[in-house]
Amino acid sequence: MSEGDVAAFVAARGRLFGIAYRILGSAGEAEDVVQDTWLRWQRADRGAVEDPTAFLATTATRLAINVAQSARVRRERYVGPWLPEPVETAADPALGAERAEAVDLALLVLLERLSPTERAAYVLREAFDYPYRQIAEVLGVGEANARQLVSRSRKHVREGRRARVEPGEHRRLVEAFVSAATTGDLAELERLLAVDVVAWADGGGTVHAAKRPVLGRDRVARFMAWVAAKRWLDAERRFVEANGRTALLVLRDGEPKFLVSLETTVDGIAQVLLVLNPDKLHHVTHVASQERALSGPRWDRTTGVRREEGFQR
Residue 306's beta-bridge partner residues? Predict the structure, then answer.
C-alpha cells in the first residue's frame, strides 16, 4: 500500500467515523465500521478508484447500515431504555462533519426510530450536505427515491423536535438545572422543565436505573433531586461538550460514572437523558485519556486503526 493510499484513508477517517456514528448512535460500533472500511480499502483495486473519499464514504455508509439492521434486534432485548453513546465533541475532532446538527443526542434518539436506510439518507444530507445524486449512488437507489428517503426522515424529525435554544442559552439552562437539582430546589426545577418533560435513564442492566421513562414536571423534578442527592453531591462534576452541547459529567476517582444531557427548547427542558451504562462512557473522557488509549500497542496513530487487524504500509 502506497503512502498516498494511507494518506487518503487518514484524510477521510474523520468523515467515516462521523457518518457511522450518526447512523449507529454508538462510538464503539462506529470505530468497528471504520476498521472494516480500512480492511476493505487494503483489499480494493485502488488503482481503479477515481475518488478515494467517495469510495471510502460509500463503503462506511453501507457497512453502518448493515450493522444498524442487526443492532435493532439486540436493542429490542436491551434492559431498560436504550440511549445513544455520547461523545465529547470538544476533544474529538474525529466526528468531522461540516454541520454539527445531526450529532445532537436527542436527535440521535429520534433517528433511531427511522429505518437504517432513512437514517443514512438523513445523515448524508443534513450532516454532510451530500447532493441527492451522490446519496442515491451511496445507497444504491434512484435519485427520486433518495429524495423521498430524505423527505420522510426530515418530516419525522420535524414532528419529533421542538425549536431549540441557542448554545449560550442552553448552557445557562444546564447550569441552572444542575444547581437546582443539587440544592433540591423543586420549585426551580419545575420552572425550568417543559410541561410534558420526559426523563430517560440508560443503565444497560449493569447499573441500577429507572427502567421506564419518568413523565411530567413534578415527577421529573423529584426524580432529578433524588438522583443528585444519591449520585453526585459527593462526586466530581464537570461541564463537558457532549454531542455538540453542554452536558454534565459526573466522575468518581477520575472515572466517568454518568452523563446528564438535556434537550433544551423554547418551551423549557423537554428531555433529560441520563447515560449510566459504563460501556457508553468511554468517549466522554478527556484528551489525555484518549491519547493514552491511542498510544498503546493495539493502535496505529497514523491511521487510527488497530494494528492486530492487519495494518500494513
Answer: 299
Please choose, from the candidates 246, 188, 193, the residue with its C-alpha nearest in 3D space to the C-alpha of residue 220.
193
Identify the bridge partners of residue 272 per DSSP, sorted by sequence position. Answer: 199, 262
SS3 assignment, position 274: strand
pLDDT tens digits, one per residue of 134-152: 999 999 999 999 999 999 9
- How many whole angstroms separate alpha carbon 176 and alpha carbon 179? 5
Residue 186 region by backbone torsions, left for phi larger than 0, else alpha for psi between -120 and 50, else beta = alpha
- Reported as half-sphere exposure (CB side, CA atoms, 13 A), residue 178 has a value of 22
Q: CA 126, CA 237: separation in Å to the nearest integer?
A: 33
C-alpha cell at 188: 426551580
Strand partners, 248: 239, 260
**pLDDT tens digit string along 209-259?**
888 999 999 999 999 999 999 989 889 999 999 998 999 999 998 889 999
All three cell numbers of 152: 420522510
